[in-house]
Amino acid sequence: MNYCENGTITDFQILDFSNFETGHILLTVGIIIMYLMAILGNLMITMVIGLVPNLHTPMYFFLCNLSVVDVIYVSSSLPKLLSITITQDNRIYFAGCISQLFFFTFSGTCDIFVLTSMAVDRYVAICRPLQYTLIMNRRVCATMSAMCWTVSAVNSLLLTLLTSVLEFCNSHEISHFFCEFKTMTALSSSDTTSREIFIFVEDIIIAFVPFSLTVASYVQIISTILKIRLSETRLKAFSSCTSHLTTVILFYGPILILYMKPESEYSKELDNLFSLLYVAVVPMLNPFVYSLRNKDVLDAVRKINARNIFST
Ligand SMILES: *[C@@H]1O[C@H](CO)[C@@H](O)[C@H](O)[C@H]1NC(C)=O
């Protein structure tokens, strides 16, 4: 069937998980729980950081950015997926698909940039401690965060525009659980070879450079920490990075595994479950990583509680 002969595109079908019969209820409940936890956890982190002056440092401001980005990230794909699993109606309008693509790319890219800014912040804190307040001043931080948001928005807008002019004559069946750039490009019947170069350059700027910068920061950080003689100071320096390092590993680990793993037809469903876990679980974990393992945040939460108890 040629979709292009009968006029404009109206909708697509999201295939994955729509015919997932065995664990259907489990999947639905799982998505609801993960979505709520991601939203609540991240909003709580944002509130705690906003309320507690002790946490008004570059690291926590960036963490606040990360939480806001994560809320957008989960909201770009999970609500629609939820409505698909509940209603069993797997259609998505072209406009809906394109906006999913925009918000997912935007928040994914922004996630990477904010994580990289945090790595730079940790690098300055550990390797240039005396100049820390000078280098990471308010203006620098605000500029860094503005850059994260702007570059992500421009990049995502470009990819969205590139996708919106594609033709989809052969199939409207999206073999993924939401609309995403690579899936849509593969589905298209337009000639996409000329885009490959653009995508290659884009991948380098958006993924390779930030990732290398993060790794380089941590190589420096670890070698600096190893040189500290006093074990107490060493531990203190290291523990100021553990939350961020955990987040970085949680974020990049699954991507690296997915990329390096050999392609296989049989594990398609497993692959999907894995990417669903990735899209839903990682944003949900950040608040836990930062609050459970972090004395500053725990103390802050305790203080807020104490204040509330005393004031009533
Ligand atoms: C993002 O980070 C910047 C710089 O640290 C900070 O000024 C800003 O308030 C943060 N914004 C949000 C929404 O968290």
TrEMBL record:
Q: Its family?
A: Belongs to the G-protein coupled receptor 1 family.
Annotated Pfam families: 7tm_4
How is the protein disposed in the membrane?
Multi-pass membrane protein
Q: Which GO terms describe its molecular function?
A: G protein-coupled receptor activity; olfactory receptor activity
Q: Which domain of life is it from?
A: Eukaryota
UniProt keyword Amino-acid biosynthesis, yes or no? no
Per the record, the major location class is membrane
**Keyword Cell membrane among UniProt keywords:** yes
Alphabetical GO CC annotations of the entry are: plasma membrane
Q: What is the recorded name of this protein?
A: Olfactory receptor
* Stretches assigned to the G-protein coupled receptors family 1 profile domain: 41-290
Name the PANTHER family on file: OLFACTORY RECEPTOR (PTHR26452)
Query: Where in or outside the cell is it found?
Result: Cell membrane
Q: What organism is recorded for this protein?
A: Engystomops pustulosus
Segments spanning the bilayer are 25-52, 59-78, 98-120, 140-162, 204-226, 238-260, 272-292
| InterPro entries for the chain | GPCR_Rhodpsn, GPCR_Rhodpsn_7TM, Olfact_rcpt, Olfactory_GPCR
What UniProt keywords apply to this chain's record, in alphabetical order? Cell membrane, G-protein coupled receptor, Membrane, Olfaction, Receptor, Sensory transduction, Transducer, Transmembrane, Transmembrane helix
